[in-house]
Write a structure and sequence with these properties.
InterPro entries: RtcB, RtcB-like_sf. By secondary structure, the chain is an alpha+beta fold. An 8-stranded mixed sheet has the order 1-2-3-4-5-6-14-13, with helices on both faces. Strands 8, 9, 10, 12, 16, 17, 19 and 20 form an 8-stranded mixed sheet that branches. A two-stranded antiparallel ribbon has the order 7-11.
Length: 486
């Protein structure tokens, strides 16, 4: 049996690309890492494995805690982590969701080709940067009053449709149609709502971005046809979340857990895993507040897409409908949802925590929209500014191996602090433009340095492992043309 050791943690190879930390001591389940040997070596360099092992102490954890191929150290629970806990005798953990509730990605298709775009790159990136609010703090497409915030939190994308910011087709191509009916705005604090009021339709900062891309490779012709993708096509990828509203919501409930469930907190090896017992008042209130923040994030991305359509209309002097700027899919990758899964031959309702992991349901799962019911859910995995991104579809093995999940991106190799020491933002921008014909515009050079291509893992290897395991099947690859960042 092949084994690997990282500090005090030993992993045994279950099969190719699957490594297990066996259950021991106070662990309630084993932990599994889905990675090639090269990716495992990188994952083992920080506290990812320790955090994954700690996650197995969560009450009600089912089967095993899982780390995706892009996994890296996070806050308490690793980024790239999946943990499913029982809805009756388990817990729900804000720490296993993260601060940016419903951080996620959406991809919009067009009928433009790369040739149509050539010569307009600089005009387009400048126009997008002017039109899409980005960076720390305030500024959004809509400045909302409290009624606006309440409507967004309660109705999600349905609010956007009613107010003229979305189409029926947009809702039909969004996870859960962009609406969580478990949302309870009354459980979101006034402070959180106030932080969200002037950030509706904004990218924020950090690793969030809007990127115009071209499709470079098609791997599964039949699935790509169903998704409406073909080589040389221009698409737009939007990556952001719930902004200050989600961050404040997470903060509020972490503090409440410290006060109200100190006993559970003290039983965990890391206080950052903070969780509320299933069935408790706090668990129900956090779930309602989290679902409301999920709705906010979907509207946030929708308004950014609306503004993007307007920019393309101005630059290309055509209606967005004529350019067929339709939503392929929008999917969350920081979320905990009640889902029914098979555990040891029994159907059980679980809180499936995905923190830096993407839902990847195969064909036939009832949650899928009609457009993808017989082909599988689109999965969107962004790479770095200088690398390709991928469109996958939910793989047949995902339900058994990962509670229907796969990776969410390339995964960081380098901290933001170290990145700013290693890279100079303006130099990165110049090299991307001169060597790769990628046009990047950002609020600061520091942001570009933090997100330089060299700070991320190899997204090609991450996707290869996902494809080989059958948890997310490769459909298409894209490459950046224009990128705007906060």
């Amino acid at each position: 049996m092949t084994t690997r050791e990282f500090g005090d943690i030993e992993l045994r190879q279950v099969r190719e690309n699957v490594w297990e930390i066996p259950e021991s001591d106070e662990m309630r389940a084993p932990a599994r890492v889905l990675a090639s040997e090269a990716l495992l070596e990188q994952i083992g360099q920080d506290k990812t494995l320790e955090q994954l092992q700690n996650a197995t102490h969560l009450p009600g954890i089912s089967k095993y805690a899982i780390c995706m191929p892009d996994g890296h150290q996070g806050y308490g629970f690793p980024v790239g982590g999946v943990g499913a806990t029982d809805c009756e005798d388990g817990c729900i953990s804000p720490g296993a969701v993260g601060y940016d509730i419903n951080c996620g990605v959406r991809m919009m298709k067009t009928n433009l080709t790369y040739e149509d775009l050539q010569g307009k790159e600089e005009e387009l990136v400048d126009a997008l940067f002017r039109a899409i609010p980005s960076g720390l703090g305030g500024g959004g497409v809509v400045k909302g009053d409290m009624d606006t915030i309440e409507g967004i939190l309660e109705r999600g994308m349905q609010w956007a449709l009613d107010e003229g910011w979305a189409t029926e087709d947009d809702l039909a191509h969004c996870e859960d149609e962009g609406f969580r009916d478990d949302a309870k705005p009354e459980y979101v604090s006034k402070k959180a709502k106030d932080r969200g009021r002037n950030q509706i339709g904004s990218l924020g900062s950090g690793n969030h971005f809007l990127e115009v891309q071209r499709v470079t490779d098609i791997y599964r012709d039949d699935v790509a046809e169903k998704f409406g993708l073909e080589e040389d096509q221009i698409v737009v990828l939007i990556h952001c979340g719930s902004r200050g509203l989600g961050h404040q919501t997470c903060t509020d409930y972490l503090r409440r857990i410290e006060k109200e469930h100190q006993d559970l907190l003290e039983s965990l090896p890391d206080r950052e895993l903070a969780a509320a017992p299933a069935g408790s008042k706090l668990a129900e209130e956090y779930y309602g507040a989290m679902c409301a923040a999920i709705n906010f994030a979907w509207v946030n991305r929708q308004l950014i897409m609306y503004r993007t359509r307007q920019v393309f209309e101005n630059v290309f002097e055509r209606d967005w409908e004529d350019m067929e700027m339709d939503l392929l899919y929008d999917v969350a990758h920081n979320i905990a949802k009640k889902e029914v899964h098979d555990v040891d031959g029994e159907e059980r309702e679980l809180y499936v925590h995905r923190k830096g992991a993407t839902r990847a349901f195969p064909a036939g799962r009832p949650e899928l929209p009609p457009a993808y019911a017989d082909v599988g859910q689109p999965v969107i995995i962004p790479g770095s500014m200088g690398a390709g991104s991928y469109v996958l579809r939910g793989g047949e093995n995902s339900l058994d191996l990962t509670f229907g999940s796969t990776a969410h991106g390339a995964g960081r190799l380098m901290s933001r602090t170290k990145a700013k020491q290693e890279y100079w933002g303006e130099t990165v921008q110049e090299e991307l433009r001169e060597q790769e014909k990628i046009y990047v515009k950002a609020q600061s050079g520091a942001t570009v340095a933090e997100e330089a291509p060299g700070v991320y893992k190899d997204v090609d290897e991450v996707v290869r492992v996902s494809d080989e395991l059958g948890i997310g099947d490769k459909v298409a690859r894209t490459f950046p043309v224009c990128n705007i960042k906060g």
